[in-house]
């Protein structure tokens, strides 16, 4: 194994330390900044800052006969232009013949992250246990990590990777150390997919089949899309899969003031109008975005460049009963489609002149707005038209119509 400091030549006779200095119980390396995570199976090193991945590097790791140690460590020593002290051979000074390159970051006695004079080896399992980096990568990392930086080294043959655009993929890697354990790993990945909102998107048996191929494979899963409801960003996200956007039903139930009735047997969901299809994966129900206008009304816009699906929805109630009706903003006030509200109030449209916008209900005349050939009335004109009281909550996007108006009771 490679030794950097001459003192280790003597120490090796007394110290057979494969594990490193442990991270304190309950301390997560990703939560300490900066922090390093190395996945030996993937031959990949990631640098975290404040819990976020800021750098990714391809690395070389130990060969099966001299594996890279797994566990929790810290950077304990750093050196520029290190010498190499191979056992039984003459020391090699810093320079082009030194396999350690020009940077050394030690995380355990005899083990370190370092540069290399063999860049062709990056991405393979060929070292004596150290972690090799391309020289320019090693020099960059060296400048970013101080002493005591946590180093977590794992052997994960499957990883769910999320891109900056929210795209998610599953990467599987060969079992370079022949450790086995594919079934528990497949179960863990399936559970992880469920936990991050992708239940059933890839089954345990499918994951196991990929692992058993013992190859490096990447499978695109889906894309997580941010959801805004009435301008508020939601914690739970929608899923874009096979060019179809799906919104979790539970998210809609929690954030939208409409009764959403889910029929698990029929796989449908309805509010106050007709039922629409629902999808079930991993025990969780989803509604495709294409059905939301029919289910909820309002406006829905998918902003691909912003990776965001926006739902603008007014909930209209007549005497505390939700009514399916369209709402548009005209100036600074919302306007409601007249016909559904009139029907809910037990009133009817006597006459409607679309050209002039003149509307009569129960002999009362009003000027309505024409939208897509239908009459809409501003909430400011609801009392004059229906003799009903209206309460508009601008922040919550709710409109409550009460008939008869309180002063008329």
Features:
34 strands; Copper Amine Oxidase, Chain A, domain 1; ten-stranded mixed β-sheet; 4 domains; 409 residues; alpha+beta; L,D-transpeptidase catalytic domain-like; elongated; disordered N terminus
Q: How many DSSP H or I helices? A: 8
CATH architecture label name of the largest domain = Beta Barrel
Which class best fits the helix and strand makeup? alpha+beta
- Sheet having the most strands: 10 strands, mixed
Q: State the end-to-end distance.
A: 92 Å
Low-confidence stretches are 1-32
Q: Oligomeric state of the chains?
A: single chain
Average of the residue pLDDT scores: 86
Q: Within the CATH hierarchy, at the fold level, what is the topology of the largest domain?
A: L,D-transpeptidase catalytic domain-like
In the CATH hierarchy, what is the superfamily of the largest domain?
A: L,D-transpeptidase catalytic domain-like
Instruction: Give the proportion of residues in helices.
Output: 10-25%
Please give a structural write-up.
With 409 residues, this protein is an alpha+beta fold. The chain has four domains: 7-154, L,D-transpeptidase catalytic domain-like, CATH 2.40.440; 158-223, no CATH class; 225-312, Copper Amine Oxidase, Chain A, domain 1; 315-408, no CATH class. Helix content is 15%, strand content 39%. It is built from eight helices and 34 strands. Strands 1, 2, 3, 4, 5, 6, 7, 8, 9 and 10 form a ten-stranded mixed β-sheet that branches. Strands 11, 12, 13, 14, 15, 16, 20, 21, 22 and 23 form a ten-stranded mixed β-sheet that branches. A four-stranded mixed β-sheet has the order 25-24-34-33, with helices on one face. A hairpin with a 2-residue loop joins β29 and β30. α3 crosses α4. The longest helix has 14 residues, at 182-195. The chain is elongated, with a radius of gyration of 32 Å. The model is unreliable at 1-32 (pLDDT under 50).
